[in-house]
Amino acid sequence: MPVLVTSGQVCRHSTAVRPIWAPPAPHRYQSGTGAGWRVGTAGHSCQCQSQHSGGSGIAPVPASSVSYRAFFWLVSLLLSSLIWFIAVKASDPQDERLQKGLLIFGVMFSVLLQEAFRFLYYKLLRKAIEGLVALSEDGCSPISIQQMAYVAGVGFGLMSGAFSMINLLADALGPGTVGIHGDSQLYFLTSAFMTMVLIFLHTFWGILFFHGCEHRRWWEIAAVVIMHLTVSGLSFCNPMYVGSLVPSYLLMAAAAAWAYLLSGGSAQNLRRFLLCLRSGASPQPGS
Predict the structure, then answer these.
(1) Where does the chain cross the membrane (predicted)?
(2) What element of type H or E holds 230?
(3) Nearest-CA neighbor of 188 among 160, 167, 202?
């Protein structure tokens, strides 16, 4: 009866040791045998994740989840674009102040709509996992919420980055010269760096958002929404790119550290990982 050292759980169906992200308190049931926590969802309890990857002991993460999350992002973009388009057409195009206000409104509304669809996607995933638990033989889901949070964040970020760059790449084909009127000639370079930070941020935000939903920590969800609004609002500092890029990368570093800690990471684990890289050895599971 090997012990999963990464989560403090006892695995009774598998001899492989691998990390498991325990569900929130309402879904936990303490065993009376001193074996730690048993994981249960929707009235089911289990003590490990079954092996669904050919005996490797690692549950597979479906790559199709990336496309599903990208679809949800596209729907949120479509709705926000439609509302902004109607607002612009119904307003006076000669009023520059009004048009700028509508642009700010469109950006903020789009952010809130994206986060609403992120929550909707979480609810659908939770229902899907409960269905997998009900259908599985051992009463365990082959995929953890933590894995789905990471994959969902990647899908959100990749689609967001693709749409951020598609118009820039189209303009890069010409005609015209960047900076011909005295503007910055680093427009495309800074746009690429901004797109990169958004892709990483969406990945980290997915982990933070799902963790907040799982543990009912609404302040974590609010923090994700505030960070998203802040990064989007910083884009209005352009073409003063230092005012938008530097704070965005600082927020990315903070979100990365936060997501790492919530995923079970620690400074000791990071130090051991760096030592393994320096020595050329492979880190052992649970070390």
Answers:
(1) 70-90, 102-121, 148-166, 186-211, 218-236, 242-262
(2) helix 218-234
(3) 167
Helix, strand, or coil (residue 91) = coil
Q: What is the pTM of this model?
A: 0.70
Count of H-run helices and E-run strands, the chain: 7, 5
Decide if 153 contacts 200 (C-beta within 8 A). Answer: no
Q: Where are the domains of the chain?
A: 3-46, 64-264
* CA distance linking residue 38 with residue 46, whole number of Å: 6
Report whether the peptide linkage leading into residue 239 is cis, meaning its omega lies within 30 degrees of zero: yes
Average pLDDT of span 12-19: 39
List, in order, residues 6 or more apart from 157 with CB less than 8 Å away.
198, 199, 200, 201, 202, 203, 206
User: For 128-153, how does the pLDDT look when each residue is reduced to its tens digit (9 = 90+)?
Assistant: 888 877 777 777 766 777 888 888 88
- Confidence (pLDDT) at 64: 58
* C-alpha–C-alpha distance, residues 32 and 41, integer Å: 18
Nearest residue to 220 via CA among 129, 79, 122: 122
167-181 pLDDT, tens digit per residue, is 788 777 777 666 666
> Which strands form 44-46's sheet, in the order they lie side by side?
28-30, 37-41, 44-46
- What letter does residue 26 receive in the DSSP assignment? G
